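Explain this record to help learners:
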Amino acid sequence: LCILWVTVRNPALAMLGLFVINYFIMGLTRYAHDLPFGMILDALIFYNILIISLQAMMHRIEWKRASSGLTVVAAIWVAYCVLEVVNPESVSVSGWFSSVRSVAFYFFFIVVLTQLTMNEYKYLKYMLVIWSVLTLIAVGKACIQKFFGFNAAENYWLFVLGGRSTHIIHSGVRYFSFFSDAANFGGSMGLSMVVFSISALYYRNPWMKIYLLLVAAAACYGMLISGTRSALAVPFVGYTAFIMMSRNIKVIVMGVLLVIAAFVFLKFTSIGQGNALVRRARSAFNSEDPSFKVRLENQAKLREIMADKPFGAGLGHGGGKAKTVTPTAPLSQIPTDSWFVMIWVETGVVGILLHIGILLYILARGAYLVVFKLRNTQLRGFTAALTAGISGIVVMAYANEILGQIPTGAILYMSMGFIFLAPRFDRELSRKEILDKATAAQQPPLRENYE
C-alpha cells in the first residue's frame, strides 16, 4: 500500500523501479527454473499502466507527451506484429503470444510509459545514475565468477542445462554475470561503456566525471571477459556515431583516426596476441572464423526456405525456440543467431524492412536533435550518448539476438523515450535558465558593492 501510494503520487518512481527489477530478472531464472519469471516484466508494465490510470482519475494528465513520432512507429510495429497472428504460415497461437511480447509489446508500452512519466530532465539524470550502479553490480558479479568460480545454480546451468557448450570453449571461459548468457552481458556492457564514457564529458562536477569514467572502464572490462566478439561493434559504431554528431571538425578527424587505428591494430597486426582478451577481440575481425562461416551457411539455407514467405513464418516460429511449437519444421532446425535474421524469418522481408526503417528513423531523429536542435550542452551530450549507444547495439544485433532481450531491451526502449523527450527537456532548461537570471537580477547588491 505504501508503494502504491508513493508511485501514484509520482509515477516516474514506478518506471525507475521497473528499470531496476528488469536488470535482475534473468539472473533469478537460474535459481527457480519452474517459476514464470518471464512474466515479471509483464507485471511491472501492467503496474505502471495501472498507476497512470489511477493518477488520471485524480489529476489531469498531459497525454500529448506521448504523441511523438516514436509512439507512432511503435504503434505501427505493434499493429504489424498483431496481424502476424493470422499469418497462414503460423500454426501456433501460443508461439505467437510468447514472441510478440518481447518483439513488439515491450517496445510500445515502455516508450509510451517513459514519455508519460519521465517528463522532467531530472529523471534522465536519475536513470543514468541508477544504470551506472547496476552496471557496477553486473561487472562485480562477473568478477566473482572469474576469480572465485561459479555457484551451484550457475554450474547447473553450465553443465546440466548445456550452457557449457557456448561458455567454456577453446579460447577460454565466457563470463555472463547474472544475465541470460555472455552475449547479452557483453552487449549490455558495451552499451554502458559508450553511454557513460560520453556522458562523463558533459558533467561539470569533476567527481562525477571520474565516477562515470570508472564505470565505463569497468563496463569495458566486463565486455572483454564476456568473450562476446560481436560486442566490440558497440564501442566501434557507438564512438563513430558520436564523433560524427560532434559538429567539431578537429574532433571528427581525430576520432576517425583513432577508430581506424584501433581497427588496424586488431585486424592487421599481431601485437598483444599473447593476451587472451586481445586474441579473442581480434578474432571478431577474422572473416575466416568457422562460426562466422556457419552463420553464413545457415542464412543461405534460410533464404531458400523464405523465398515464398514475404510475411514470414509467424512470430515464435523461427530458430531453436520454435521446436516447442513446430518440432519437425525446417525453420526450427536452423538457428537464426541474429536479431535481424530472427525478425526476417518470423515476419518476412516486409517485416524486416519495416523494423529496420523504424530503427533508422529513431537514430536519425536522435542525431538530428543533437546536431541541429538542442541548445543545452549537457542535454545534447546525454542525448548523443544514448543515440550512440543504441546505434552500436543495432549493429551488434546482426550477430546476436540482443535487441529485445531482458534487460537490454527495456534499457534501449527507455533510452529511446528519453531521446524523444529531449526537446521538452531543452525547453524546461531554457525556462529555468531565464528564471535564474531574472532572480539574480532582482537580488540586492552585496555589502562590498556599497563600500
About this structure: The beta strands are 168-169, 172-173. The first strand starts at residue 168 and ends at 169.
